[in-house]
Specification:
This protein has 155 residues and is of the alpha/beta class. Helix content is 34%, strand content 11%. It is built from four helices and three strands. The longest helix is centred in the C-terminal third of the chain and has 21 residues.
Length: 155
């Protein structure tokens, strides 16, 4: 995506501390540059929680395990249900985070130009906490489910 979290190192550190305090292991995976489709599928299929800006990279969310959670990050004045539908149809739970600024619930589409920004941890924290709770609930509900091994055949 062309949208960047300008303080990604700070957010990663906050996520590491938060997940470690809850007994989770955080693995940060980034889609940067060309990545073969089968590698993209493997990456999504091994994710319990996906945190990403709104963008085309979310079209792979249906490859996430059933009961996992996708958190879609929006900027002020931009809103879409496209990737929510992708995720929910595949059994992936959906949350979103967005700027809490007054007037940000209106969709101004692409009129905003550069959408890079520093994202405050307090903007993400509620969705991250809820996602972790949802995954824990799903693991209890889906105990015994297994994902097939992904190979390059057929891709």
């Amino acid at each position: 995506t062309d949208r960047k979290i300008l303080n990604d190192a700070e957010i990663e550190a906050k996520l590491r501390a938060h997940t470690a305090a809850s007994g989770w292991t955080l693995q940060v995976k980034r889609l940067q540059g060309p990545l073969p489709f089968v590698e993209q599928v493997r990456m999504y299929a091994s994710s319990s929680v996906l945190l990403s800006y709104h963008g085309a990279q979310l079209t792979n969310s249906p490859f996430m395990p059933r009961g996992s959670v996708m958190i879609e990050l929006f900027n002020c004045g931009h809103w879409s249900h496209t990737y929510r539908k992708f995720a929910e149809e595949a059994g992936v739970r959906y949350l979103h985070a967005r700027e809490p600024t007054r007037g940000c619930m209106h969709d101004f589409g692409k009129l905003l130009g550069n959408m890079d920004r520093a994202v405050p941890w307090e903007e993400l924290r509620p969705a991250v906490c809820k996602a972790m709770d949802m995954v824990a609930e799903s693991k209890a509900e889906l105990k015994g489910w297994a994902l097939p091994e992904l190979t390059g055949a057929g891709y």
